[in-house]
């Protein structure tokens, strides 16, 4: 179902600047959408047309298939269903305290006082703002203001949340927190639309990308399709995502499987060729093409390492009694990822999980779980890009624990399961703690809905192969 549509939309400012020129879009409900385009390409103007702040000179805006009405009741209804978060939070935050600002929207909808109090407190909890509720918003940091602005919009419980450059001026951790929130809201069914110049973000985060230039829509589609047209991206004065540039350099050098479009670093890592060449001493009778069993070797293959070099094929023999072999490797110590719901934190249970799974990498996602972890004196080594970093760490034999809460628990579990399924890598994944069964159940339900197979949850094992040939294939 299309939640928002525009048909041949046109808009000019009073000074004659044509900011939107014949734009027709169809936005499916429940997706994560990015509008990308250089400064002045018309993104903000389009957003203001989508929530009825501006009335088009020509064309239509449709919400849920119905043309929007510009009457005051029509606009009130539209703004309840389509919330907008401005680029500059100071344009949005107007009340004397954080509490009053978040209460502003629900008050305009004539909710009862108790109802408003309930909604505002829910938002303050959700966004980790309780301790700031009586502060004047202009005394807050940029990241805090952004959370207040989003909370104010979310307090109206809109179906669609539009955010103009939501991550601009935020530090990397603050940006990651906002992204976590947007992912969680999307996971709960909301359509999220952002504008950004950050092609890396649009490429990695979105389900669908709209490319704008000079007030026109010049392309739309999956991020992989839109960003595969390098010339068009350049013509729109944007750059290719860094991960694609890097991948193409590896591809040219035959260091990665060609013809792919990795979306993030874990996907890129999966495409790297896993050939290891080593120079080793061999006996006089060893011939080219034969396999030698090298057992556990030094350096990467030392006893502390995660790999064991098994039957390795001799590629060439040297006069000095050495040979170059292509090492076939096997992971000795499997990486694992556990996910723990901080909502049901229990000190003893937590300590037991850390010990049982021999955890050596702990990451926290989302404001609430980070705060809870801090209160409990848990030492976090990663608080940004946690899912990707945990996957990468697990791939190198580490035993990772992701602390998170609320809807993020399922989102995290689903992303890891999807990665395991797509990559074919046998990483071990465990929802852990009291709510583990519930996480498992909900993730499975979501998997069923999205028609994907559920990967069987395997217990920690002693030896996993690493997706390369096993011993039988050689010799
Ligand atoms: N109030 C205004 N009066 C006249 N022209 C305007 C006004 N606001 C924006 N414009 C013009 O409309 C065009 C589109 O601007 P808009 O702000 O929508 O672009 P944008 O893609 O959001 O840019 P940015 O990425 O810099 O936020 C630009 O040419 C801009 O100069």
Give a short synopsis of this structure.
It is found in: Cell membrane. It is built from 16 helices and 19 strands.
For the secondary structure, the number of strands is: 19
Helix/sheet category: alpha/beta
Task: Summarize the amount of helix as a percent range.
Answer: 25-40%
Distance between the termini: 57 Å
- Biggest β-sheet, characterized? 6 strands, mixed
Strand content: 15-25%
Report the bound ligands by name, code or SMILES: adenosine-5'-triphosphate
Strand order of the largest sheet: 6-7-8-3-9-10
Average pLDDT level: 85
State the helix count: 16
Q: Could you say which overall geometry the principal axes of the C-alpha atoms support?
A: globular
Low-confidence stretches: 449-475
Radius of gyration (Å): 26 Å
Keywords: ATP-binding, Cell membrane, Membrane, Nucleotide-binding, Translocase, Transport
Family: Belongs to the ABC transporter superfamily.
Pfam families: ABC_tran
Protein name: ABC transporter ATP-binding protein
Q: How does this structure look, described?
A:
Probably part of an ABC transporter complex. Responsible for energy coupling to the transport system. This is ABC transporter ATP-binding protein. It is found in: Cell membrane. The strands form 4 sheets. The protein has a 6-stranded mixed beta sheet, sandwiched between helices. Strands 11, 12, 13, 14 and 19 form a 5-stranded antiparallel beta sheet that branches. Helices cover 35% and strands 24% of the residues. It is α/β, with parallel strands linked by helices and 475 residues long. Strand 1 and strand 2 (18-28) form a beta hairpin. The termini are far apart.
